[in-house]
């Protein structure tokens, strides 16, 4: 199971449990709260009806006076009241009146007059000067038959003369309880869906960041040039930086080991030649022979120095992951700088360079590196070109890329060397029998890779070698 799925399932479980707990808690509070609100309304109703009952009681018309007529009329009135999504048609309000002894004087429900209600809390507490209310079952075997009663004192000339109680079945609240529970369930379900959507987005975000780190690790393992993807502040960024640090340390150790071995191997040849020439110079030699050996020492020393310098340049380039000073470059102007630097070598072999570059052709690159790449390609072309021949340079834009090609008229690449020309220290013999350092083309390849491009060398059908450097615009 993936980490993102575990995160999503974990958040889903926590949110679901929290939602169920919240629903259970609020559901348990809905009925008591509605009952309290109903009791508050009954208190007002009892005290509104109390003056009417007091007048009827004083006139001896408690059973057929204004109160009895009003309650009877209420029970026969079609209310047609739309309360939220519930429609109320008939009133279920009941009223009864007792005297100071708790004996029943009037009951809208039709109970027999004279019954003793003095022990019911609503009557008992009111007769003793307290707030009186009670909730009693109309049928003891039915828990849904509870009726809420609220009483108010009846006064005459400042003295208590009776009690009026109003009552309402608790069952009448059930429609509102069910409605409130439904609304609560809908709202909690909506909150759960939003929370699950957030959890899904969060798990996707975590998965995306982890995939970026995994892809980065895979690219590093495959020895591809890649930069650490941007990470948000926190543990993910710390993990990315730790991976980058580990990559740098491991690559650095392997890199140093590889280059020490390569340099040791390649430096043996010039050092052996220098040592041999120096040993021969210890003997008495003719001036001409001595001068030749001294020339060999200087030549091999220059070769060793060139080898070390090129190897250091290549090492610095291979350690870079991104461009540092990319800018918009004019290809024509850049190529002219390369030609000016190589002018003496071109004249020495009497070579002519034919250039084809569209006006205002530009690309974004690091100027120094691109110039170094073109110089290396031109040096190779000069080294393998016969005297009094031509070099052809062409630049063109193709599908978001710029192709820079340089063709010489030399002997071409032998079949056995086609797969090795980009190996470090691998070089072919030139026309004069000398060899290069074998680091020029690997240097160009690293520059192309750093710019997101490529370099290829192939034999031209009409002779010579065509070197093509392709870079994104």
Protein structure class: alpha+beta
The termini sit apart by 43 Å
Do you know the CATH architecture of the largest domain?
2-Layer Sandwich
**Do you know the CATH topology of the largest domain?**
Beta-Lactamase
Briefly, what CATH class of the largest domain? Alpha Beta
Task: Specify Rg, calculated over alpha carbons.
Answer: 51 Å
Shape: rod-shaped
Biggest sheet descriptor: 5 strands, antiparallel
- Summarize the helix and strand pattern as letters: HHEEEEHEEEHHHEHHEEHEEHEE
Instruction: Report helical residue fraction.
Output: 40-55%
Count every beta strand, where a strand is a DSSP E run of 2 or more residues.
14
Question: What spatial order of strands do you see in the largest sheet?
Answer: 4-3-7-6-5
Low-confidence stretches: none
Overall residue-averaged pLDDT value: 80
Tally of individual helices: 10
How many domains? The number is 3
Strand content: 15-25%
The CATH homologous superfamily of the largest domain is named PAS domain
């Amino acid at each position: 199971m993936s980490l993102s799925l575990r995160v999503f399932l974990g958040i889903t479980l926590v949110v679901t449990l929290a939602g169920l707990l919240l629903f259970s808690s609020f559901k348990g509070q809905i009925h008591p709260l509605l009952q309290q609100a109903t009791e508050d309304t009954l208190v007002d109703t009892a005290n509104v009806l109390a003056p009417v009952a007091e007048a009827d009681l004083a006139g001896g018309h408690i059973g057929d006076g204004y109160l009895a007529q009003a309650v009877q009329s209420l029970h026969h009135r079609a209310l047609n009241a739309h309360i939220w999504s519930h429609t109320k048609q008939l009133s279920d309000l009941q009223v009864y009146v007792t005297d100071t002894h708790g004996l029943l004087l009037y009951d809208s429900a039709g109970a027999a007059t004279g019954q003793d209600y003095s022990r019911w809390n609503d009557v008992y507490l009111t007769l003793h000067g307290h707030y009186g209310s009670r909730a009693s079952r109309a049928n003891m075997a039915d828990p849904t038959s509870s009726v809420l009663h609220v009483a108010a004192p009846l006064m005459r000339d400042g003295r208590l003369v009776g009690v009026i109680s109003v009552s309402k079945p608790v069952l009448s609240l059930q429609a509102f309880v069910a409605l409130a529970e439904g609304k609560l369930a809908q709202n909690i379900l909506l909150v759960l869906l939003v929370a699950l959507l957030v959890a899904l987005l969060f798990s996707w975000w975590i998965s995306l960041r982890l995939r970026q780190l995994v892809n980065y690790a895979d690219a590093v393992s495959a020895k591809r040039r890649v930069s650490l993807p941007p990470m948000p502040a926190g543990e993910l960024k710390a993990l990315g930086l730790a991976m980058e640090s580990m990559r740098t340390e491991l690559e650095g150790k392997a890199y140093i080991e590889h280059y020490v071995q390569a340099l040791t191997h390649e430096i043996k040849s010039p050092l052996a030649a220098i040592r041999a020439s120096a040993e021969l110079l210890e003997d008495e030699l003719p001036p001409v022979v001595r001068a030749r050996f001294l020339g060999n020492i200087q030549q091999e020393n220059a070769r060793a120095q060139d080898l070390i310098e090129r190897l250091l340049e290549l090492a610095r380039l291979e350690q870079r992951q991104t461009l540092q000073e990319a800018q918009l470059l004019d290809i024509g102007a850049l190529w002219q700088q390369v030609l000016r630097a190589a002018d003496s070598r071109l004249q020495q072999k009497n070579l002519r360079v034919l250039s084809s570059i569209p006006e205002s052709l530009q690309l974004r690159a690091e100027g120094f590196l691109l110039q170094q790449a073109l110089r290396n390609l031109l040096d190779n072309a000069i080294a393998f070109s016969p005297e009094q021949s031509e070099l052809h340079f062409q630049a063109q834009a193709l599908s978001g890329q710029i192709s820079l090609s340089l063709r010489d008229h030399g002997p071409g690449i032998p079949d056995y060397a086609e797969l090795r020309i980009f190996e470090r220290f691998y070089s072919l013999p030139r026309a004069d029998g000398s060899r290069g350092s074998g680091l020029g083309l690997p240097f160009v390849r690293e520059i192309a890779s750093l710019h997101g491009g490529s370099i290829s060398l192939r034999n031209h059908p009409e002779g010579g070698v065509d070197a093509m450097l392709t870079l994104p615009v």
